[in-house]
Amino acid sequence: MEQRRRRTRTRNRRKWFIYSLIGAMTLLLISAGSIFLYSYVQGPPSLTSQQNTVLYSADQEVIGVKHGNQNRYWVPLEEINPHLKQAFLTTEDQDFYNHFGFDLTRILTAITKNIIHMDKVEGASTITQQYARNLFLTHEKSWDRKIKEAFYALRLEMFYDKDKILEGYLNTIYFGHGNYGVEAASRYYFDKHAKELTIAEASMLAGIPKGPSYYSPIDHPENAKKRQRTILHLMAENKDISKAELNKALKEKLAFSEEDERKGKQIAPYFQDVVMNEASELLDVTNKELKTGGYKIYTTLKQDMQKKLKETSNKKIDDSSNIQVAALSIAPKTGAIQALLGGRNYQESPYNRALQAKRMAGSTFKPFLYYAALNRGATPATPLESEPTEFKLANGKVYAPSNYNGYYANDEITLAQALALSDNIYAVKTNLYYKPETLVETAKQFGIKSVLPAVPSLALGTASVSVLEMARGYGMLANGGQALHPHTIQKITDSSGEVLYERGKPSKKQILDPDTSFVLTHLMTGMFDTSLNDYSRVTGAGITDQLTREYAGKTGSTDTDNWMIGFSPQVVTAVWTGYDQNKEITKAKELTYARHIWADYMEAVHQDLPERKFKPPEGVTAVAMDPHTGKLAHSGCEDQRVTYFIKGTEPQSYCTLHVPNPEKSEEDKQRKKDGKSIWDWIGF
What we know:
alpha+beta
């Protein structure tokens, strides 16, 4: 009886054990299935994290890299040196291509060793687990983090192949000094791309992630060298490299990048700030999101032009002077900003004086006034008295402007001379005749958005405007009066090359009258033409001998500002110099900085450009005019200038101030006999 009961109990225990085992296995299978199902339902995790945003010049050279606190690039696996890939596989996860995210043998071995030593002496994380941790988790030591890491690792293995996981791991692992990924590390430590590394360099980098601070070759070169040797020998033992390659790598003297190279290449920092602000608006993202989004921004910057603008500025401005400079160049056909200076030293002051500062334009504002006048009946020959004048205003006050240095013609001068000599009396008379409100409205047509008071002195540029606004206005003259939209960005892509934004073709919308625009443009070439000299020299006389091409332009000055803005059919450049705190400019040399920077720079950037002249439209006609009388010039007129008029407004009578020269008259008759015309001696 007792024996039967024992057999019964044994059978029951056996059944209980079997049922328990089946239950445990069922529960394990259900749990495993649930984990796999949950991981599958969650879908493929993102393979990327923060990445650097890279800025390119117009010729697609890198001019700057933007990032947050972390320096990151993403490069495809095929663009990573094979020895660097193998070094990581050898040191971090030799069975990477054989497991499903977890190395059970390695885990058990690690557990055993840790128990024996009563401490964590060995880890068991695979490359997949490390990648999951790098992407999604913190490095805190907790069971919660371990469980999440396992889930992320499982999802990575479930949805991506091994090469894709390895690529992601190599692009996200930390190498110290704020650098994430092999590309960032390669550039930081060796100033080269990850695909260009030698075996010695690759093994050095592979040793850093084990302890980014302890094994930094910058801070702890001895530790880093010891770790490198260990990796090289391990690679040789595993037949990853040959004995000869091992010996060569051990002997190679590594050349680490200099400190300035590690800080990264940053060309035209003021320009880059403008690019980042423009890109933020175009993509509707914050500046922080833009810096870490891995974008590729293709800009309009011409590196050679930027270099020449910076060099010319440094050369012309005395090192002992505290005066500031702002300058930029625009392509008048497209509106592309090709070069930009916001100040003399970005590190000392990142304030962008070309865009952010508003300064009085001085006489550079006069072309807007004369466009309004020419568009309303005035001509280059229109005469007005240049003499000390007091203007009684509607409010009862008296306004008495003066010419530079108190010089006056005390006689009539033509509009052509008034612009070339920058006569203030002529400008104020013109402004009052056509009404200051007309000038305000005209300036808006030229793209001036700053607040402009409708007062007589506006003709002399007493309103505060930006360098960019003025360059844009002059650019509209250079392109024949078409709309102009200054910009710094041509295209933006994401890290994989998908185009997120691309600028379309420039607008051909006609804003200004093309005939009037050309007449004014040609009048603005007069600042360099000494035939327009009268009671003073033309304002460009001091730089005329430096110029080899046809330019149109205008100088401007106030007590605190000095300007030179001018253009060819290919390039518009505006230069401003002055003190930040509106300190008066008193040194004679400082009064010439703007025009000399402009002249040297424009000549430099035009050296490799084809020579082009301003092309007259069909609605204008050219005559030889005596600039003093505004009449048709004859052989007795010592000063005569080819001047353009809108057809039907050109002078019809000859100058009576001068007596014709008989000898020259005979030459003219001979020309007519030879079939020559006025166009031959005008130069067309």
